[in-house]
Each structure stands twice: as C-alpha cells, then as structure tokens.
C-alpha cells in the first residue's frame, strides 16, 4: 500500500497531478486546494497518499499533509459522501476551517462546497461533530454553546441573542462566539438585550 510519494511534478490534469518518482509516473488525484499549492512542473513535491484498490482499478489520492488525508477518510464515514465529494469539501475548506465549521455546527460553510447540498452538509456536521473539536482551534466554550443552540438546549436569552445577531447579518459562528463571550462577562442571568449589546461590542473589537 502506497502511503507517501516524493518526486518531481511532471504535469497537471483537471483534478490530478502526474508525479515522476524515479522515472515512474504516478497519477494522483487531489483537491483543487492541494493542486493550487503544488509547485510548477519539474519541481519536487511530497504527497501523503491514500490508495484505493478496486477490482477494475487502483486509484491514488494525494494530500499536502497527513491531517488533510485524515479528514478525507473521516468525511467518507458519512453516509452519502464518497471520495469525489470528500475531495470537493477539502477543495473548498482547509482542514482547520472544516474542523471549525463542524465544531461550530456551521452547515452553511460546508454547503458552500460545489455538489454538496444542505442535507449532505447537515449529515457531515452532525456525524462528525464529536471528532471535529479535537482538530478545531476555537474556544471550547463556543463549541459547547454552538452545540447547545443547535440541539435547542441553550438558555432562551442566549439563543435569542444569537438569533438577533444572525438577523443583523453576522454568521452563526461569529454570533455564537460573541454571545459566548458576552454571557461569560454578564453572568448566567443576563437578559437578551444585554447579551446583544455586549455581543455587538465584541464584534466591533
């Protein structure tokens, strides 16, 4: 099983790169994001590889980092997500951004992927929500709050304050982060209006 390839870029295709390793050309399928970051033909490159062996073909998928490859595997554990969709998601969102989006239940960010509709985005966020926080670089309190809002467990003033900020045009993750900070400083018994006011101050910083 091939796990890594180091060689020279021979040429590029629409969704793959031909990597010359000791005179052997390996066709490696990559996300658009990975292809954009690879060097020009003739230059050296290293790719983490995921090898798919089928009855009628062997297919190689290449990634700039082991973490990206791990997300490729994780995404395919979700019902309805195959290799093509997983690559498309990783072409739209960097691994850290994908982790943050899932941790914050930001279905809209995942749904920006071409070919990924709201239902598939919902499944990705729901089924991977327990795995994403380990990769995410957001405040655990914000992750907890986003989950509580999504599951309708958040206190009413908090949920209403987040909803108000979203209605003002802020994204759900931004609003959740601002209100999480506001509720920390205002205390558990804060009213909606106070949370909104403090949340807007946070967003203005």
From TrEMBL:
One of its GO terms (cellular component) is Holliday junction helicase complex. Residues 156-205 are annotated as: Domain III. Residues 73-92, 108-127 form the Helix-hairpin-helix DNA-binding motif class domain. One of its GO terms (molecular function) is four-way junction helicase activity. One of its GO terms (biological process) is DNA repair. Residues 1-64 are annotated as: Domain I. It comes from the Bacteria. Keywords: ATP-binding, Cytoplasm, DNA damage, DNA recombination, DNA repair, DNA-binding, Helicase, Hydrolase, Nucleotide-binding. It is found in: Cytoplasm. SMART domains: HhH1 (SM00278). The keyword Cytoplasm applies. The keyword Cell cycle does not apply. Homotetramer. Forms an RuvA(8)-RuvB(12)-Holliday junction (HJ) complex. HJ DNA is sandwiched between 2 RuvA tetramers; dsDNA enters through RuvA and exits via RuvB. An RuvB hexamer assembles on each DNA strand where it exits the tetramer. Each RuvB hexamer is contacted by two RuvA subunits (via domain III) on 2 adjacent RuvB subunits; this complex drives branch migration. In the full resolvosome a probable DNA-RuvA(4)-RuvB(12)-RuvC(2) complex forms which resolves the HJ. The RuvA-RuvB-RuvC complex processes Holliday junction (HJ) DNA during genetic recombination and DNA repair, while the RuvA-RuvB complex plays an important role in the rescue of blocked DNA replication forks via replication fork reversal (RFR). RuvA specifically binds to HJ cruciform DNA, conferring on it an open structure. The RuvB hexamer acts as an ATP-dependent pump, pulling dsDNA into and through the RuvAB complex. HJ branch migration allows RuvC to scan DNA until it finds its consensus sequence, where it cleaves and resolves the cruciform DNA. Belongs to the RuvA family. Has three domains with a flexible linker between the domains II and III and assumes an 'L' shape. Domain III is highly mobile and contacts RuvB. This is Holliday junction branch migration complex subunit RuvA. It comes from Bradyrhizobium shewense.
């Amino acid at each position: 099983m091939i796990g890594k390839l180091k060689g020279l870029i021979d040429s590029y295709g629409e969704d793959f790169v031909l990597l010359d390793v000791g005179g052997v050309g390996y066709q490696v399928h990559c996300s658009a994001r990975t292809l954009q970051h690879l060097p020009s033909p003739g230059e050296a490159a290293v790719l983490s590889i995921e090898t798919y062996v089928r009855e009628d073909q062997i297919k190689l998928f290449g990634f700039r980092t082991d973490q990206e490859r791990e997300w490729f595997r994780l995404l395919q554990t979700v019902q309805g997500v195959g290799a093509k969709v997983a690559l498309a998601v990783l072409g739209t969102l960097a691994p850290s951004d994908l982790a943050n989006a899932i941790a914050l239940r930001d279905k809209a960010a995942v749904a920006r992927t071409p070919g990924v509709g709201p239902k598939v985005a919902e499944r990705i966020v729901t089924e991977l929500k327990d795995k994403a926080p380990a990769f995410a670089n957001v405040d655990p309190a914000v992750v907890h709050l986003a989950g509580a809002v999504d599951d309708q467990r958040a206190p009413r003033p908090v949920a209403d304050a987040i909803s108000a900020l979203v209605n003002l045009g802020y994204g759900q993750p931004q609003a959740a982060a601002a209100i999480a900070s506001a509720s920390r400083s205002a205390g558990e018994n804060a009213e909606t209006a106070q949370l909104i006011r403090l949340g807007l101050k946070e967003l203005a910083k």
